[in-house]
Amino acid sequence: MTGTFIISLDFELHWGGFEKWQLPMAGNLDYSEYFLSTRKAIPQMLALFSKYKIHVTWAGVGLLMHENKKTLVNNFPLSKPTYINKELSAYYFIEHKGVGENEDADPFHYAHSLVGQIVGTEHQELGSHTFSHFYCNEPGQTVDQFRADLHAAQQAASAYGVKLKSLVFPRNQFNDNYLRVCFEEGFESVRSNPKDWFWNIESTQNESKWKRLNRGLDAYFPIGKKNIFSINEIDIRDGFPLCIPASRLLRPYNPNEYFLNQLKLGRIKSEMKQAAKLGEVYHLWWHPHNFGNHPEQSLNALEELLISFRKCADDFGMISLNMGELASLIRKTNEKKAIA
Hints:
Elements: E1 4-11, H1 30-51, E2 56-60, H2 69-74, H3 90-96, H4 112-119, E3 124-128, H5 143-158, E4 166-168, H6 176-184, E5 189-192, H7 209-218, E6 242-245, E7 248-249, H8 258-278, E8 281-286, H9 295-316, E9 319-320, H10 323-339
Parallel strand pairs: 1-2, 1-8, 1-9, 2-3, 4-5, 5-6, 7-8
Helix pairs in contact: 1-9, 5-6, 8-9
């Protein structure tokens, strides 16, 4: 088998943490500059992906995909999430905090131009991070509300001529009931969590510090399980999308942690090379806004990793695929086996 390198990105801007990240309207300028910096970094990421011929899935929040408030509101699903904690709802945020009229007025909640750049860049797949950053394990919401959310996500993507086929669950929360709905709504692949216990995320609320500490430590030291995998290990279940496991989160650059930054990159390069040698899959992911605080250093680190991939491609024949392409390859391979 040929080694495969996958990148998937959780593209969300402020929708990724509207319930906790304060913008200027609340008197805090830090997150404003953070997301403006993120927006500048995204075209630079696309340029690097083009330079090194990297195939990427951009799992975007559907709310970002609108040109203006009118089209945004018109695309709201009729059935909205009824979380017990109302502040987790994007619609509650819009009602009580408000959003601007368009991308020029509010670059934190609209990204029509950036989505257009993604769709227009070769080998980039527009995927879904649900319409409203939907939390599947939070008390109060229902499976039917999730289905309505995915309908709205598909409608938002249709404005770009895209049928969404790959999905990343916000905060990595999901179960089989929600996976079935994904498949029924046209999604062929989803990103699943690593197998380690500290990636079993049941809720965004009151998660133990011990779990978070172990997730952090695993970026630098091998405390988790093997995180590369064979294509043959991905289960094909009737009525379900393919669950493509994540291998590694590319954690943000920290100027105060030079040694740890190098350790983190070294670990990723080592794992990638191992996958290339063994003909297995390595799946790297992050949020574009992780590049918001130190964009130059973050982009330099990304290029270092992409150079490492090109070496794996040259030395071992490793290929780059996005989630949708990998899912298509797996299903076609399975069909050929069935015929044989």
